[in-house]
Amino acid sequence: MKAKMLEENVEMMRRGITRPTEIEIELKKRLEQLTDRLIQKQSQVESLSSEKATLVLRIETVSRLLDEDELPLQSTDLAQNSDATGSFEMADIESGIWRPSSSSFQPVIIRDKIRAGRRQLGSVLQQLDLVFSIGMVYLRRNQKAQVLAFLYLLCLHFWVFFILNSSSHISDGTKSGAVFSLETINNTSNP
Question: What sections of the protein cross the membrane (predicted)?
């Protein structure tokens, strides 16, 4: 009789340990929400700190140019630099580069376009990083998603292996399927 009572008590204790209570479930959900919010805030802090560093660099460049008296402060100074043909030098305050309007300084314009492209690429990379961070949080918490992601990657690798090792029936047999496919794409894109 006592043995049965003790076994029942042990069994109830095991069930109590293995089954979380309603409060524990609520706390786990809240912890997951706070973790997600923390990751989002960390991403925002990183992007704001990189933007701050960029702005500090620009301010330092402009202040250095102003200290060296290389940058005209008023529009009258800019008008005094104009020549007889009407072309005048313009100051690019953000990058600290003097840029005449003539076509002899095209590399400066190209450099400005490259800088703008780098900024856009940096913005795209930050957005992709945020998306992948959120995806990793989801994968970390969802076992089914982990298995599906693993199966997807496995199938993707098998498919790439198949494409790279398959031979084309149309070609002479010395080229792989991937090489033939690339040649076909190149031939169709060229008029």
Answer: 145-164
Condensed to tens digits (0 to 9), the pLDDT of residues 74-127 reads 444 444 444 444 444 445 555 555 544 444 456 667 777 788 888 888 888 888
Residue 137: other Cβ atoms inside 10 A: 15
Secondary structure E strands in the chain: 89-92, 97-100
Tokens linked to 16: 């109590």
Residue 177 lies in a domain: no
* Number of independent structural domains in the chain: 1
Nearest-angstrom CA–CA distance, 162 and 166: 6
Residue 39 lies in a domain: yes
* The model scores a pTM over 0.70: no
Q: CB–CB of 92/105 below 8 Å?
A: no
Task: Please report where in the chains the tokens 């009789």 appear, as a residue.
Answer: 1
- Please check whether residue 91 is in contact with residue 72, taking contact to mean a CB–CB distance below 8 angstroms: yes
Backbone angles phi, psi at 144, to 5 degrees: -65, -40
Alpha carbon 56 to its chain centroid, in Å, reads: 22
> Residue 157 falls within a domain, yes or no?
no
Answer yes or no: are the C-beta atoms of 138 and 145 closer than 8 Å. Answer: yes
| 151, part of any domain | no
